[in-house]
Amino acid sequence: MNRLCNSLEPRVMDDNMLKLAVGEQGPQEEAGQLAKQEGVLFKDVLSLQLDFQNILRIDNLWQFESLRKLQLDNNIIERIEGLENLTHLVWLDLSFNNIEAIEGLDSLVNLEDLSLFNNRISKIDSLDALVKLQVLSLGNNLIGNMMNIIYLRRFKDLRALSLSGNPIAEAEDYKMFIWAYLPDLVYLDSRRIDDHMKALAAMKHQYGIDELKHREALMQAQLEEEQALRQQLQEHKAAFVEGLDGSFLFDSMYAEDVEGNKLAFLHGVGELLEAYKNKFVVICLNIFEYGLKQQEKRKVELDTFNECVQEAIQESQQQGKDWIAKFEEKHLMSLTAIRDESDLASMELRITEYNKDITELFDLLMTLEMQLIEQLEETINMFERNIVDLVGTFIENVQSLLAQCRDLENHHHEKVLEIAINTLEKMAKGELDEDLPDGVRALFVDKDTLVNAVGASHDIHLLKIDNREDELVTRVNSWCTRLVDQIHKDEVMRNRKRVKEINQYVEHMQSELDNLDCGDILD
Predict the structure, then answer these.
(1) Which of 161, 165, 271, 291 has its CA 20 to 30 A from that of 412?
(2) What residue spans define the domains of the chain?
(3) Which of 10-14, 83-87, 163-167 has the lowest average pLDDT?
């Protein structure tokens, strides 16, 4: 299937090839000629044809961010790559190449029509991102396993499929299998599927289809559950309280606490530990619920702020548009009057008046922008104070609740130490009735060893609590700082963009006036 022409060397997709292709495929009328002279921006190109170019590797397409149709058939391409930025692509033709695997299509979420006809592909996969796929051409490849058809069931919009010329097309049950397992398909190998034959195929494979549907339903339910859990986790992380809706923090305190787990074998410690855990988890749940409520408050504050900003910007823009509309109405009349003026002195006077109008418009627009800057600065400062206060209150209350966890830990530590020392004294007197594991007995060689073991367990627990507090405080403060910084940066960029727009508009108006040739007008 290699179509490398011996008389041609493999070619690279460089800027020269792309510019030539864009130029040749652009409009040929006056507008097209002007575009050729001034140059066409690749980002504005919607369709690109690069067939029969002896291209070996897809490259340099990153600028074609608006591209909707790409034709790369009849080349010698070996890999699908370099398409990451073509997110608006709807139609892609890679037929008659040397491609061995389907890959590199993950960003093409809007693709509807894909042709990989006449390549070296042996497996249908890696198309998951193509949720809008309607037409798939894979004829004349090396696909031999009928189970590849099952993979295509996920594409609910797929209506046309071409697989002729593959080993699977030689199977006796080829068409019936596809008709049965892809019931929404309308065309197979360029022929419309007969509804009667589709019904017969469904009856023939009914048992297999029912079993498959059952498996798909189970998988879908599992997928939805996993997605819901991921979404829930993201919401908890956004509130900075993930893992606090249960015993996770408490369990983590004992996960690496070897001595603490040994001490749990002592008589009375088990009951003490259970009571400790219950109280600890209640505090964690309080933190969790409080965190979610505070997250909602922060969200409302941010949403309200964004609404105020957008309202102020839109009001300012509308006022500016009104002024520009009045100016342009007068502008057309002024230019006409200047062109129609036969007296040089009168014309110069009109030009002076028009220049004054342009300057006045510029001053009005810039004043309006300065007023908007002051208004937004006040709004931003107020929001910053409010969000900082919300974050500060959140941190203060969480730290207070975590302090209760430390109090519980300190109390538990004292009780465990008391039980441990009593046990040591009983062992010394030979009054210990319970049979302890060897690992636990090793802690009771002397009082110092025992106290150190209980202390080490206590230190681990406090460290876990401290780390969770530090993590929460650091993350919420970082979030607040990044948010406020981004808001200030966005306002600076908005202002620069607006000032640039005003200058460009005024310069354009001025250039129209400057381009009036007084001599030609008087002639």
Answers:
(1) 291
(2) 17-193, 203-238, 247-517
(3) 10-14
